[in-house]
Every structure is written in structure tokens, then in C-alpha cells.
Amino acid sequence: AVVSTQSGHYDRGMRLELQEVERQQRAQKQARKEKERQEDEEFRREMMAKFAEDDRIEQMNSQKRRMKQLEHRRAVEALIEERKHRYEAKKKKVPTATLR
Q1: Rounded Cα distance, 44 and 84, in Å
Q2: What is the DSSP string of 38-56?
Q3: Which runs of consecutive H residues, i.e. helices, occur in 56-100?
Q4: Is 73 in contact with 48 (CB distance < 8 Å)?
Q5: CB atoms < 10 A from the CB of 76, how many?
Q6: Whether the Cβ atoms of residue 76 and residue 48 lie closer than 8 Å to each other
Q7: Over residues 63-68, mean pLDDT
Q8: pTM of the predicted structure, to 2 decimals
Q9: Enclosing H/E stretch for 61
Q10: What pLDDT is stored for residue 97 in this prediction?
């Protein structure tokens, strides 16, 4: 079957449009991941500062301070993982938008 020129242009235009939509979606996904990474880093810094203040780390001996810092890092990482799981669960509940 021979594709007419008019139909050929339509198909090519649709392909280009779909490629552009896909490119935009990839860029949005990358931007979301970067934003999430930045939010995680900011959350990590805030929580470490809070834990440090709560335990008055600066007044503890060095060994105890190192142990508390390690404990805090683990707690912060667990909180970040929990946030990610909640985000993923929420994302699964929200139906994806369909292309028009």
C-alpha cells in the first residue's frame, strides 16, 4: 500500500508531536527527581541539626557524640525511606493523565 503525501505528512507530524511529548515527560521526570533529591538533602540537614540540638551533641564526649551522630543518620535515612514509600503509594493511587 502506498501512503499518500498528505497522509505521510500527518504521520510524520504525529511522530514529531509524540516525540516532543515524550521529551517533555522525560524532562519533567528528571526535574521531579532533582527536586526530590534536593528536598531529601534539605530534610537530612534539618533533621541532623534538630537531633544535634536535642541531644546537645557538642557537650558529649567524642565517642558518645560519634555514636549519637551515627544513630541520627540512620534515623534520618529511615525517615527519608518512609517518605519515599508514602510518595510512591500516593503516586500509585493517583491515576495518570491520558494523552489527548
Answers
A1: 13
A2: HHHHHHHHHHHHHHHHHHT
A3: 62-93
A4: yes
A5: 19
A6: yes
A7: 84
A8: 0.50
A9: none
A10: 57
